[in-house]
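[recover] target loaded
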């Protein structure tokens, strides 16, 4: 089995102002979907939602506002799952609430670190 990270991407919508009931319904959709993966024994880390504000540090030492100043997409969060291969990990995205709202799920293998010395 291998570990795979799912990155949830979407386009920011500055006009989106959900009601408390809409937020609660959205959270339930996510919890149900993640719970389904957990029920299969394939959830390694439920992950976290990510904030919209941040800084990007560039190789030249410059720092820019926002993690998404050069793109129209934001990474809204992540989850780590365990699967036998990439195809099985991709199949686990079925029913992801991000896809219901026009978002995307990027699935990438988490590379094993091996034995890294702790000098």
């Amino acid at each position: 089995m291998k570990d795979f990270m799912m990155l949830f991407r979407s386009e920011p919508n500055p006009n989106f102002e959900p009601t408390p009931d809409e937020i609660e319904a959205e959270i339930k959709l996510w919890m149900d979907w993640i719970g389904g993966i957990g029920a299969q024994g394939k959830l390694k880390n439920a992950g976290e939602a990510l904030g919209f504000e941040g800084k990007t540090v560039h190789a030249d030492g410059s720092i820019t506002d926002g993690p998404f100043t050069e793109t129209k997409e934001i990474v809204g969060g992540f989850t780590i799952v365990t699967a036998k291969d990439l195809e099985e990990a991709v199949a686990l995205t079925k029913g992801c609430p991000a896809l219901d709202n026009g978002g995307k799920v990027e699935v990438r293998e988490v590379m094993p670190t091996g034995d890294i010395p702790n000098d």
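[recover] notes: The chain has three helices and six strands.
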